[in-house]
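step=predict obj=ABC transporter substrate-binding protein n=467
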Amino acid sequence: MRAMKKGLMTLVGVALVGSQLVACTNTSTKTPANTAASTAETKTATTPSPVAAKPVEITWWNFPNFQPLDGEVGKYEKQIIAAFNKKHPEIKVNLEMITFEGGPQKLNVAIASNSAPDVIYDAPGRIIDWGKKKLLAPLNDIVTDEVKKDITPALWKQSMVGDQIYMYPINTAPFMMAVNKTVFEKIGALDLLPLSRPDRTWTMAEYEKALQAVKDKAPEIIPTGFFAKSTAGDQGTRAYIANLGVSRFLSEDNSKVAINTDNAAKALDWVAKATKDKLSVAGAASLAAADVNDLFLQGKLAFTLNYSAVLKAQNVPNKKVQFEDILLPFPTLDGSKPKLEPYLGGMAVFNNGNPDKIAAAKKLVDFIANDPEYAKKNLIQTGGLSARTSITGLYSDPEYKYAETARQFITDAPTIADGYADIRTFWFPELQRVLTGGATGKEALDSFAAKANEAIAKAKKDQAASK
């Protein structure tokens, strides 16, 4: 991938200067009427005409971050653009909706061919990688001190490279599990879920008991899910293993892998055994995150691993049967507080070498994040919580209130690590080896650690060489 060209353009302000008309008179005295007419004439001639804002055209690529209106993907985004144009009629915004399946590759091709969009709403996994490659325009100039103080360091870490802000954080929610509460009500086992606890924390032993109850009393339902086909949704599997094994995925400074502990290895071995025991979905090595969530939405799966308040809202029209989905933190081996990675959505501006387009794109970002009327509407339409700690109580749904509570468990996400784009590609092949009997949990995690640590070291070396 090659860096996009950078250029400087100078904006030239145009001043319209009118010449004052001076009336030539004789020595006779002017009448009051003549004086008034002369004054009005002078005022008209010396007042500059307002300079029209320079027309600019930008392109916005957007994943389906906002819930569709009337079942139409992109309809809400068009409303945003219409409202934006009332304040900035000089900026034409071309919207292109992309999917989570094909969008990442389309972005890679666009960047490689110097045809990236001007602005995008995405997540740190891709945005920070682009920022490290100098593909983005810093947003420091549109982030106020008030906003800086109102967003936690954990979220800022996912939005910055060094002291440069490359993503404007907008919506967030902790990634968690979800459970089909209706299934447990039907089998009379609701007491096996930790719903009576304010923080809903629970142990691996309690989780296993709940899975066994589903297997015994609702054999038509798959107790829980797992997936290892691709990098999509990797936060679900790594948080699942890390919490079951009371471990971290990476070290606190993100300098090396920390998931290859004995407890995490046992947790991964447990996943393989649970599959054989029919407590976990069969064929997980060939299932993607979307496949597992689809089973959940069909009512065929009691627990799913890759969920959040955002996904809960987005999945409402996708349910094939009606049931109540409830958010739960990942269980831990000893019942200790879980470590939840945050979902974070925000906007980034590509540095396409045109200062006018960059400035216009920043205005769109600022409008979506901070407009007095639309900022709150936009948050609710994403189904997420605000990235700003002062903005709460957007929803009356008790699951959203719990999601606010669960923010206490948020930890740093590994997406900010050097070499993360490569790190994640090594994860699923190792999971597949365990699921297919080709390696033990410890062998797989040690192999992953060796490859990932090498990628981290290489990325650090490359960054040092580019400075």
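step=describe
The mean pLDDT is 88.
step=end
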